[in-house]
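Forgive a beginner's question, but would it be possible to get a protein, spelled out as residues, together with the matching structure tokens, please?
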Amino acid sequence: MLEAPMIPFLYRHRILSLIKEALKNSDKEYKDFLYENKITKPFTFNLVPPPNKEIKEAEIQIDNNFKVKDYVFYSKDSYFSLFISSVDYRFVITLFNGLKKLKNFDFSSYENMLVNGERVILKIKRVDVLNEKPIRSDTVIFKTNAPIIVEDKNDNPILFSDKNFEKELNQITDRILSSSHIKGKGLEKPLKFEPIKMSKQVVKHTLKSFREKTGKPVMYLTGNTGIFKLSGHPKDLELLYKIGIGNRTGQGFGMVEVLEWNMY
């Protein structure tokens, strides 16, 4: 649970920095393992603003080179909820201990991520570990908490309505699960994706590496959001529930929740 007067819509890269800082404070060796190697991150996250938030446009100074007009969540007396999910027990314990030590985090560092010229400080008010029920069924109805990003090998977005969406999703998931620190082997059986109430969502996102490479302040990612049915092996479905679905899960995409617990 985070206390802050405001948080920009462009928050994902700074929440990622918060996670890195917490991991470093608790277990630097593990943090270096995750981020000095080009590996799939065993977690995903999602930030939920309070119900009484206000949304206003503001000038965001991303860094010394870029300023953009974008929207900001404002909250006077409520907390932002940050949900982080992982399949890796070491990650969970390391993050938990690191957040407990951290207390505060500079969302705005130096000249980066200023909102109308003001710095944003996140106060870590409470850290809880939430239990998740295990998935025992080969079919689950999920709802996205953060858009699912599916991209082909050329980084082109694939929408749920595209004929090759299921094929690309299977290839991505098989590769992710094959990572030794996640499962160590691919899918037990192919996934079957059935949209129930899905739509396209375009999200603004930024990363330092992207800005340096392209000379642009933000990237526009085309995601999939809504309710869908996913069928596969229960072991694989549970892993996807914990680490997120699709690409860029470690950047705050692909988090889902189960809508029908009574299915298993």
